Sequence to fold (287 residues):
Amino acid sequence: MLIGAHVSPAGGPAKAIARGIERGANAIQIFNQNPRAWKPRDYSDEEVAQFRDAMAGSPVDALLIHAVYLLNCATDDPEMRANTLRSLTASLQAGAALGAHAVVLHPGSAKTGDVGAAIARAGEVIREALAQSDGCPLHLENTAGSGGTLGRSFGELAAVIDAAGGDTRLGVCLDSCHLLASGQEIRTADALAAVLDDCVAQVGLERLGSLHLNDSQTPLGSNVDRHANVGEGELGQDGCAVFLSEPRFEGLPLVLETPGVNHSGPTAEEILWARTLRERGLTARRG
Ligand SMILES: [Zn+2]
Ligand SMILES: [Zn+2]
Fold:
């Protein structure tokens, strides 16, 4: 398991590798553009070369690119659709240039409309973005299930993948906070195993591609997405240890997207804490 954190790419993507190294991360996740503005960011050849150099000599072995939250692949508004498609395509192209493990995407929101129609629209946008890019996988993230967000269940994730054409570049990113908030009990090894059996049955083990470890400020089934620091929320230390030691997660990149002690994101101490909890979980499983 490649444990790491979401970090800022301010100053260029190579700087994100430096921030990963400072934190003792084996995986990092970045936004590839300003999360609050429709302004796709293309990396220059020099930035790409600097990034690849920095990563090659570092303990960071996986890069995830998180598509920004402005996107809504399920929108029925033509302007929003065009912006979303352009931005998602740019993220996938950036991912290919930087050699990313995957782009991670929240599948979209039906708002108050029909979910089936929203899934069909989201699938179409994703299909077009994949067609306009090369190589980089796209992982659909499970969501906490607030409002009309798609991806609250494995069935919905599977339906979006289907609607997008079932390309082999499509996978899923599982977020521990979102799983709990969407009503999935994952705090014991047996409970998590049962949830993953369902995931594997609906989307396939081969599509299980990346992980977010966040504790949850809100309880099981709350449908509210509020991240807590590792071990300090409803998952707790034991729940986090279970997630970190799940056998089917071996080898996958896992990044923290926690508020951090100073609300400036995950720290080196928190990543070290996650490693400690993983060891604790592995020991308990050998029990
Ligand atoms: Zn997440
Ligand atoms: Zn979240």
Remarks:
- The CA atoms of residues 131 and 180 lie 34 Å apart.
